[in-house]
Amino acid sequence: MATAMGKRLEGKTVVITGASSGIGKSTALEFARTSPKNLKLVVTARRLEALQQLKEDINKEVGEGVKVLPVQLDVSNPEEVKNFVGNLPEEFRDINVLVNNAGLVKGVAKAPSIAEQDMNIMFATNVTGLINMTQAILPIFLNRTEGSSGLSGAGDIINVGSIAGREPYPGGSIYCATKAAVRSFTESLRKELIATRVRVIEIDPGQVETEFSVVRFYGDKKAADKVYEGCEPLTPEDIAEVVVFAAGRRENVVVADTLIYPNHQAAATVMHRKT
Ligand code: NDP
Ligand code: 8X3
């Protein structure tokens, strides 16, 4: 029997950015597991092969009730984002949920030694990419008339921020600034959309073990592994469960803002490690 959450998600179309790995990939799987009978998932990222594998994994696990569409999309490319909705097959265009998850960090350099290229890619992906995706999909939400509330519009924008957006730390100035920008944009947007049924949701994870640190250290897996030494980070599934929980609430409930730590963490820079 479907859970209340599963029923609420039934028939929806969900777009996830950054679904080739980590939190985005787990979020796609969690949506499929929660509402396996009738769901459409548009999974996007730059690595198409990983998305195709994800589609196979989902259909193997939950069957064909979940229609998965892998779409190669670089959110840092404004033209690709502009063409995204128009290029979707008709049956995937009536989007209900946008999970703005694609994001990355590059390096631990401090000013004045931060590489311009790293700065640009972080802003273009984490900030401009997220805003462009939101602007591309929001008109679909605003055109929707739903329910007896008298308010127009419906849909969920779920932005993956970070503890880094709340608490800047040395060696993360650009990444932290991008996530603070996400936080600020999200809060403005929620206020701008107050007369609609669109829900604007921010989910801020603490430390999660994904490819995030491997990307931060330019592919150096040893350096990445050190980040998690002596502690038990969150898994991407832990965050995926919260994303799906937020999307699966009754339409009048907005899980506006959530900070999720592993047990050993109490701030961006306060962590207990076993020695
Ligand atoms: P991963 O590196 O495992 O996943 C990042 C995803 O983003 C990948 O699927 C990657 O896909 C995608 N991505 C990166 N650049 C682009 C781009 N230009 N266009 C489209 N997709 C892109 O890391 P996480 O799962 O940890 O990261 C997901 C989100 O969670 C990020 O926004 C991150 O900032 C945030 N976060 C992570 C935390 C952590 O500790 N791991 C903590 C707090 C927040 P591809 O390379 O195929 O394009
Ligand atoms: C990722 C968390 O603290 O490594 O957003 O920047 S942190």
UniProtKB/TrEMBL annotation:
InterPro entries: NAD(P)-bd_dom_sf, Sc_DH/Rdtase_CS, SDR_fam. Belongs to the short-chain dehydrogenases/reductases (SDR) family. PANTHER family: ALCOHOL DEHYDROGENASE. One of its GO terms (molecular function) is oxidoreductase activity, acting on the CH-OH group of donors, NAD or NADP as acceptor. Transmembrane segments: none annotated. This is NAD(P)-binding protein. Keywords: NADP, Oxidoreductase. It comes from Aureobasidium melanogenum (strain CBS 110374).
